[in-house]
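Hi there,

I know you've been waiting on this one. I reran it after we fixed the sequence typo, so this is the corrected version. Both the input and the resulting structure follow.
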Amino acid sequence: MDTLNLLLDGFASAFTLENLLYAAIGVLLGTFVGVLPGIGPAMALALLLPVTYGLDATQALIMFAGIYYGGMYGGSTTSILLNTPGESASVMTAIEGNKMAKKGRAAQALATAAIGSFIAGTIGTLLVAFFTPSIASWAVEIGAPSYFAIMLLSMVLVSSVLGASKLRGFIALAIGLTIGLVGLDASTAQARLTGGYLELADGIDIVVVAVGVFAIGEALWTAAHLRRRPIDVIPVGRPFMGRDDWRRSWAPWLRGTAFGFPFGALPAGGAETPTFLSYITERKLAARRGSADEFGEGAIEGVAGPEAANNASAAGMFVPLLALGLPVTATASILLAAMQKYGIVPGPTLMTDQPDLIWTLLASLLIGNTLLLVINLPLAPLWARLLRIPRPQLYAGILFFACLGAYSVGQSSFDLLLLLLFGGLGFATRRFGIPVLPLILGVILGPLMEVKMREALDLSNGDVSGLFNEPLAIFVYVLVVLAIVVPLLLARFRPSPLLDQHVQREDQEVS
């Protein structure tokens, strides 16, 4: 009952004309950027992060809630209409969604994706509201050794489950940790990896890293593979669903939500696994009904389930972010950077230190999710027209706003040089199949892990046993070992190469 009252108080703070306006602007901006080819929610947030500068913390987070859900909606639009997922979690949506679009059912595919996202996002956000305070109250009692172990587990899980190669995942993590070391040592004030540049004494801003890796890297990758031919966009009418579509979609929406939220709430990162499980489940259930032939040819269940799983997982990631301060997705990493800009440090004490802000944020997520459905569903034909923007002009605009955003961080031309450097790094990650999330996670969590490790070692007078002197820490280290060993043993028993094939196709498709 206390949780419900706190959530209602959050609605009271969010339900002002000014805050609703910021939420609506966030939804429209997020959708506008997210609907463009190859741009996912993380890149949309990275590009639009400077837009929130100058707002107070509450207004900025409300706008970010709108941008977040708008970017998620935009990713499903490009997956269905262009077969070009903005992120790997949208691959499963593209499999059946694009087939539906080619059969003249683009409106139904967009409708089931949008409504499923709304249902999953609403249920997921309510679960976040009810679970996060309990986890936060438990996390307050966690000591430095256990906190260090949990962050290590998060890094290992994210690095080992993303991409086709675990080695590439750990390479990305090592790069991110190295970037996180740049600057002055917190204990000795000695310069580390600065190369003698005073501009690097305070470290590298996460906004510069994120915008460079996501926006500049994507623009360079597209330019390198650009084909000068018009984009083939499937025409879209006003999204609607018939009675049969509703009958076939409601159960996949709920099943997808049940798959997605637990994976998002665990510090493992990514929505690829629950979307894949949702797709396989719907396919098997269709086989029992004798309608498996529709899968691969445009089955609406194959859009409804994975899209709900994707959005439920996206909502679930707020549990480790708010309760433990662990960003387990690239999008969560950008949200963490946004919070840090306002002096907000997510973690066990956040729910008690700034309860008004957090409950307003949770209420804003529900408001943004609703506005997304109300505003954007009728505007689907308009968003589809944006896909006709020629790629050279499109990515020239992205480069301009990326540079403007990076410059606004510190108003230094040196940041523009760093932006170009990280853009080259982003291009390299795509060229060699290196996942981006471990890199971003290393940049953000690396300094926090260093602080917790030093606290643990200080308590034990420098003895390394100080990292193992709590039962929870020992248990987490066991999980770390299992996370590395078990996937190696099960690698030969993958159920299907379907997901890997479509992830590879995502890189190969250029319009």
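Quick highlight: The chain is about 70% helix and 0% strand.

Best,
R. S.
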